[in-house]
Write a structure and sequence with these properties.
Elements lengths: L6 E4 L5 H16 L3 E7 L3 E3 L4 E3 L3 H22 L5 E7 L2 H8 L5 E5 L11 H9 L4 E4 L8 E4 L4 H17 L3 E7 L15 E2 L6 H16 L5 E7 L2 H8 L5 E5 L13 H9 L3 E5 L6
Parallel strand pairs: 1-2, 1-6, 2-5, 6-7, 8-9, 8-12, 9-11, 12-13
Antiparallel strand pairs: 3-4, 7-13, 10-11
Length: 289
Amino acid sequence: MRHDGPVVIALDGSPHSEQTLEWGLAEAEHRAAEAVLARAFQVPRDPSAWNWYLVVPEPALLAEVKEYLVERLEHATVRSPGIVISTRALDGPEVPALQALTTDAQLLVVGAQGQVGRTRVGRVGAHLAAHSRCPVAVVRGASQGGSVVVGVDGSPTSLAAAAAAAREAVWRGVPLVVLHARPPLLDPHVTVREVPPLATSDADDPTHQAAERTAATLREENPGLEVRLELLDDEPVHALLARSGPDDLVVVGSRGMGAFRGMLLGSVSNEVVRHASGTVLVVHDDEDR
């Protein structure tokens, strides 16, 4: 995971982009990193009887995108005068164009762009969270004042996520919540189960012992950081969603212990990205590269 590349902030011209920009600039300030304001565009085409034709002339569309980026750059320079800020107009489909920038970036910041309901993330955010070559922040709101919540399960990516979450908490001056959820054993005779998360502590459980060691390491490596360890008997997705709120940052590894090796985004990470009420940071490990 790189620490020397730029923070790429993906903008699309929607009202939500203002929140994405504010969150991304604050993150670049925390990291003392360059910020790159990026917007992808694709010239719309319609089929005619004989061929495809341009709906909007390409030079006109490019000029419109550049004008938008200049306006956002002026705002960003006033808001964050202490960092270097540049712009990139990307010609092509949004997902692959932005994904190409993540090879050299230390963070990609995208807006959730989803509607409240079945899912709270759009197609672009979901694809980039799974396929990018660097950590991805899927932003819902500009607030950075809540706690940082990280889920750990002992997998390499969850440990990388815990280290990244500790850095985020230190930068913000907020507590770090380290959450380990042990899936409960369900009664096969019970078909409906509506039980709230159950706090538990099992000294003989190896996963609890590992979570304790992870929390202790984070305290040792980050003096002064308040690290709260929460051990629950609950499904991991439900536990993370229930524990975090709109102002919190949830940090997850791209793949947990249960993910197949070929998967780029595990089931827990995928569900948290799609349904969390606040911003989610997805941390990829070196095997995702």
